[in-house]
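Protein modeling request. Please complete all fields; requests missing the sequence field cannot be processed.
Requester role: graduate student
Desired output: 3D structure, token encoding
Chains: 1
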Amino acid sequence: MRFQRLPKSYAAVVTPLVLSLIMTFVVSLIATLRSLGLSSDLVPFWLQAWAMSWVVAFPTLLAVLPLVRRIVVAIVKT
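Delivered output (78 residues):
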């Protein structure tokens, strides 16, 4: 079973989507572990923290990505 790949034009949205999912996954896990430790409540609290952080992170990435690209162009030789 193969899935249909998205057109190249979707890359501008898919890149920050994947980046925000991965980054919030890791950061929220670390923050939740520091807060609760290895407790039986870890997974539900972490998933809630992950969802809340992703809701903020994804639109933030969409908004700041053009600025980040300009900053990178100014810093990196082409």
